[in-house]
Fold each of these.
Amino acid sequence: MSAATAEVRATDTLRRGHPSSYGEAPFGFAMIGLSVLFVAVFTAIPILASLALSFFSWDVISEPQFVGLENYQRLFTDGPVLKSFGVTLGMSLAIVVLQLTIGLGLAVLVNQRKLVWVRTLFRTAFYLPLLASTAAVSIFMGYLFDYKFGVVNYYLGLLGLSNVPWLTSGFGAAATIVLIVVWQQTGFTFVLFVAALMSVPTDVLEAGQIDGAGPLRTLFRIKVPLISPTILFAAVVALINAMQLFDQPYIMTKGGPGSATTTVTISMYQKGFQNLQFGYGSAIAIVLLVAILIVTGLQFLAARKLVFYR
Amino acid sequence: MSTMHIARIGRIAGILVLIIAAMVALGPLLWTVTTSLRTPAEAFSNPPQWIPSHPDFSNYSAVFERIPIGRFFVNSVIVTGLIVVGQTITCTLSGYAFAMVSFPGRSVIFGIFLATMMVPLQTIIIPVFVIVRYLGLSDSPMSLVVSALGSAFGTFLMRQYFMQMPKELGEAARIDGAGHFHTFLLIYAKMAGPAIATLAILNFSGFWAEFYRPLIFLQTQDNFTLPLGLVGLQGNLGTGSISVVLAGVVLAILPSVVLFVVAQRYFISGITAGASR
């Protein structure tokens, strides 16, 4: 109905020759209506609600109680939760560094291939892991890295090495989950870098060659600076995703052994949904958001010096 | 050694690295497929069979008998399908309005949309869970659908696409007497096919694979989607039925692979779309 009225008004302004810029406003409001409703109810309001809830104590059943900053005070003296921030940060940094360097290396090597079908073949191979869900990956990787029966330890045994406690030791579990995330997600940075490298102008590369730049010099002095905005984007997205790591450690190790792979999102899940401490869970969620904003901000600060914009 | 030789060695090393990397990327997937074709008794016996000598498809029927995987599959299809269709509608409408229609408050509202894009799901999951409960949708697959019908990112994606389109087309149509909505539907939406396909593929791959929200929203096994159901299945069956579990895993991945084969370029544009921000 509002679309129809908008139509009438717009034709009116056309006829009168006074194109009012807001003549189509009712139409505009009608068009954004559904999105505004759903984004408001399920994203925007929940952000504010999370912040508000973090100042309350609430077990979902009884009335929420205002407790001021108590949840935050508790958080900053809660050893296991603080440790989960450390675990998350450490695993995230490892994931991002590996994902970027391996993704970039493979992209450079694939781009050097002249035959189109060879490039397509490798691109498909590196992309395929992304098609599996994190749940599916966690299930089959759990079998592959099994201590006694896993294929990985079987092949290491053939090389004369003893079984590695991939998922059954603290450091091993964290490192293995990092490797599994990198295995699945590197296709993402790879695809971004391949696209970026394709857009590096060939005359720049030729000029470099004429000046006698070898392949490594071309890579680090020409290609990497030219695609540095894409590298920054990949680093930001990869880090934001890694900071929210949940599925793989939850499915494969339940955050263990001990609390070696208990990430922030797992401690939030435990406090919020298993212990029904919605206020405390919200406080952890808010601190996680702030932590993500800080590390992203640091990335952009570092980028000021390192990223080259054409 | 001459530089020619070094260049040749470098090239061969490059190809070797690529081949090894491809084997690492594909190996676990190949193992999953071949092991799903071994009898449950020999599934965990090494060495693994990279090419099954006697493929045994009984695991695939077992997966349907032992657990309600048919049920999980239907739940996943309904949830993912409704979200894909719903977001296509809401995001196309609002993306067009933010790009092409002027109305008071447009930049402020769009700014709020952009700001919400940065907020991780975990930060808002508790309030969303509470809202879903108040709507009477707890433990229903519909809770997953309703809370995902709007998307700031989808709106942004569609807006960027409509921004590139010439405004003159619409003006000409309106002078010819077409209304605003007809101009949108018959001229602009028709041209937005590639962007709609990209958004639909992004949403399909994201929500088909989703684990976190189903884990929190759903309690009854009958309501589970595939990823959640498979993880439960793995926990319940124990190591005696690995090949059955893996058959379920293969069935869960298959639709994504089929779609990837058909619409590969939209998967790639989905990834690069974000980078053009």
Amino acid sequence: MTAVRVLVGTKKGAFVITGDGKRQKWNVSGPHFGGWEIYHLKGSPVDPNRIFASQSSGWFGQVISRSDDGGQTWTTPGSNPEDLKTPEGFPKGESNKFVYDTEPPSGKPLTTHQFYDGTQKPWVFKRVWHLEPSLTDPDAVYAGVEDAALFRSADGGKTWKEVAALRGHGTGPKWSPGAGGMGLHSIVQDPKNPKRMYIAISAAGCFRTDDGGASWKAINKGLKSPYLPEETPEVGFCVHRIAIHPSKPDVLYMQLHQGGGIYRSDNAGDLWQEVNGNLPTDFGFPIDVHAHEPSTIFAVPMDPNLRVPPEGKLRAYRSRTGGNDWEPLTAGLPQENCYINVLREAMAVDQLDECGIYFGTTGGQVYCSPDSGNHWHPIVRDLPGVLSVEVQTLA
Amino acid sequence: MIRVVIPFHLRLLAKITGEVELEVQPPVTQRTVLDALEARYPMLRGTIRDHVTQIRRPFLRLYACEQDLSHESPDTPLPERVASGAEPYLVIGAIAGG
């Protein structure tokens, strides 16, 4: 018997939704961390019952929580009674301590980034946007944070250390915040090459490491951003999301800000080509890849000015050719008076034989298509605004 | 015994119901009370005071005996009625948001 577990982060708590293999019957658990903004939750590929969660609040700052029982119970790593018994001694409560590395190569003199008004501002930690558990080690997890930087924990989230060479790339003074802040939101590990990883920052662009994080290369050639003064800048792009298929990790897909749209790279990001084709707009936030068809991708275009579905019709789009040729997917989705948004973290796919596609909306709905996008139904309709959706496929 | 009241969201985080009672060795100051609170509940570290600077988070205020102590030195002794346990030390979240 197979099942799926949908991890939903919202503006007022987390929800863990389990469904059977047919994805017709659902059980909703939550809210967990009621009242806290949950930017992201994600389970370990090595141990699916281990789930990391990013809680944040304008009042109380950042908290990292972890479940080791599939989301039934949660703790803040390093703050539990059993930690008193470890050789590490008394718990230090440092699971929410994200301190920028001020040593070379990331720190001095690279301590500022560009602000909205063009002035330079110092890096200030605000929150964790994205948690990416290691593909091989259940205790290892990456965090993408605002102001943009990459952190890594090697102890299950108890402590964090910056992957310093990313900010040490040297282009930091040209990175700037998007409307939602300057966040590192996409972390993509290459399953075939443990030394290779991709990250994306809004608004800086994409970067790739081929040496396990020791050095980084900006990979933004071919992207278009008419709002930037230079025609082909190295950085400054408001990337909304990147995704790969694990069988073809050199093929990257991207949703870029308006003026750009959907892009594909066939060479690990060295060069991008625009593949908007017949999409109704070039704006949107999430992009994801079918679990079993590496060239089948999904996006949810939005009106670039209003950031709502064009014509009030909620349509996901599917391309089976890696972009350019797109078909609208509407069955089961509202086709009138729909003015929600779908945020960058709020789309995911499952791994069942008939791939399921999921997305959550700012209106609190989570939609599921159990047949690769042909038909949709809402799992839940009235959650707080959805910030993130991840799906685990359980044996 | 020092009595401390913290906001709902932090009680949820620390799995606390009601007031917290703490043993605090003199001097009883905001710093020593918060240090004792965080020692008992390590998950609260960084949520009331910044992890590194130890500065109060801007949307929190600190009260006792109908006095706003938010801008007092963290090392100023708390009122005797707090030190004796007659009055609680209050960590209050800004009443804002939706």
